[in-house]
Design brief:
The structure is a homodimer of 336-residue chains. By secondary structure, chain A is α/β, with parallel strands linked by helices. The first copy, chain A, has twelve helices and eleven strands. The first copy, chain A, has an eleven-stranded mixed sheet with strand order 3-2-1-4-11-10-5-6-9-7-8, with helices on both faces. In chain A, α6 (157-175) packs across α7 and α6 crosses α12.
Chain lengths: 336, 336
Amino acid sequence: MENPKKLRIALDVMGGDFAPEREIAGARKALMDSKGEIELFLIGNEKVIRRTLSSQKGESSQFQIVHAPQVVTMEDVPTAAIKNKRDSSLAIGMRLHSEGKVDAFVSAGNTGAVLSASTLILGRIKGISRPTIGTFIPAEHGPCLLLDAGANVDSRAQHLYEFALMGSIYYKIIKKKENPTVALLNVGEEKTKGTEEIQQAYKLLFESNLNFIGNVEGGDILKAKADVVVCDGFVGNIVLKFGESVPKFLKYRLRKFSKKGLMQKLAVAISLWPLKKSLSDFDPNEEGGVPVLGVNGVVIVGHGSSTPKGIKNMIMRAVEMARSKINEQIELALVK
Amino acid sequence: MENPKKLRIALDVMGGDFAPEREIAGARKALMDSKGEIELFLIGNEKVIRRTLSSQKGESSQFQIVHAPQVVTMEDVPTAAIKNKRDSSLAIGMRLHSEGKVDAFVSAGNTGAVLSASTLILGRIKGISRPTIGTFIPAEHGPCLLLDAGANVDSRAQHLYEFALMGSIYYKIIKKKENPTVALLNVGEEKTKGTEEIQQAYKLLFESNLNFIGNVEGGDILKAKADVVVCDGFVGNIVLKFGESVPKFLKYRLRKFSKKGLMQKLAVAISLWPLKKSLSDFDPNEEGGVPVLGVNGVVIVGHGSSTPKGIKNMIMRAVEMARSKINEQIELALVK
């Protein structure tokens, strides 16, 4: 008989830019690390999965394989993809989750499509008007959770409040910190700053049970002035992508400087070690992926270019979320 | 007789965090660098100005001193400050400009108050609905002009189009590049991305005479995908401040790494040289200040913490703008 406590995770092996090789390699890593605590369902083209499994080293009989003939690509328009590709690995995996046959769903595919499928197939948590995605941004003293990170480009005050509530619970679970601080991203510290929606959100947050510390500015994110920083998905997406581009920009500038002479070349070569070590948490594979918060299920979505390590970390993050019963905690907080 | 071509610049010497020492030291530098091409009006408390002039080295008879008994502080609410402090250095300097007695006004004071005073005292250029401020952000191949950088937290499509038009002309004048590329900051490249206002702005920009290259994402700013990047002032302010916080964050992380051992300490010490050189343009004093575009005059506003070099660069930027007759160029572009 199977261990009844074994968590069942569905992995969309067709989603990423290097699918299914990296997905399957990541699945093997997760299985090794989790020491029999999880059961992995690989969702995708069965032939391709079997071929990839046999081409890679390691045992392959421990996986459950679920055939899905279609693939949602990065070019697909999210809502159309869900409607027209009902036999995609994304739709089939998400349906398995909605039917209770798995405890979480993980994908490195089209983020918009994963979001749409989560909302349409799993449905929203009662009391949540807009599901959200949140990302950890490296900061001085531990990471800062920024949300919404791009799911909702036009967020109202009530949505911002809900993001804060869900982000606060997610932060508590993942970073093991009770009552994390929450701030509103704004153009100044005073409560009269920002658009009308932002001012209204300030009021909602101020009156809530959250550990709200007020507004923070763009320069406060990397300073980790707050654990959870809430913003509109438009702003969040732009800040996030700007932040992700910093290490590459730095590299570009250093390369340019190193061309000025031998001393310069030497100094840059030496500086790569401390820089790489100091900025390692800018690599999205470290966190693995971002959660879709506010839907009736556990969904993790990651970068299309996720490495096997990134895929493994996504799976482990899904396990952690499923174990914590995060959605019950969200529901409880909503009625408080 | 005076050189009739001498440009007259009014400097608010009471505005900055280290006023009036840095302002007056910067004014001296500007006078030296400009070789008799400019006449400088120091606006502020006459006694304080004379005392500071005599306490610093150098000739002090070349300045025009205009007494202003009041000071607008960083804590003042912009609109109230303009109304209640009619004898502040800010209001008096701006009125001098509006009366045609000086050709430009420069301040390192309260940005919001400078913006309000510019709009109220100088008035808007005909055809411009919202004056804007634009900032150069360091990028891979030369800087990128980001605007609006915080003047308008709630910008409509028409405003975004006007920012693009003014930014394009400013970029051409300052960076000596004909027909600079213009892009709209968005959450994706497709024209269907973003809020309704953003999609409408895309349309206006696409149909305009500007060198519009489409949408860019947050990660494209440092890559310098476009010369001029247009966005809402809320987004612009947050991206700008986030960007400004990067060097400090880097320093923090490197310091932390250097504490791990002797080798680490050594490597970090060496890396400071290439890093400082590679990121020198992150220092706002290099550009000096940002222009208030769209008002009937030439106004430069800078960081409160501007160094004398920063103040000098603000003055030189004002000279450059006044010489180029930027506002005539904007008016011309508007009727095209």
